[in-house]
Amino acid sequence: MRFTYHIFICTNQRPNGDPRGCCANNDSEHFRDFFKQEIDRLGLKEKVRANKAGCLDHCMYGPAVVVYPDGVWYWVGSENDVTEIMESHIVKGKVVERLLIPG
User: What is the pLDDT of residues 20-41, one digit of tens each?
Assistant: First the structure.
């Protein structure tokens, strides 16, 4: 099966107090599960895949998310952010500017 989009969510765990931050300590596993729920809700299971990722090297923004093949980097802080990425970027093709990781 070929997917139109792959959404990689950093679930990397760093020690507490690491100055780079840690996506896993900011609920990234929950957000990955919520991305999967949104994929189901929107009927996109055959087109979109939400994957765990190791460190994406943007921990200071965390949780870090990258959407391929577009190569768009986001941070998420709430379920509403996940829903907005899904409904705007994945369904409508419109990047969610407010959630972009500076690059």
Answer: 888 888 899 999 999 999 999 9
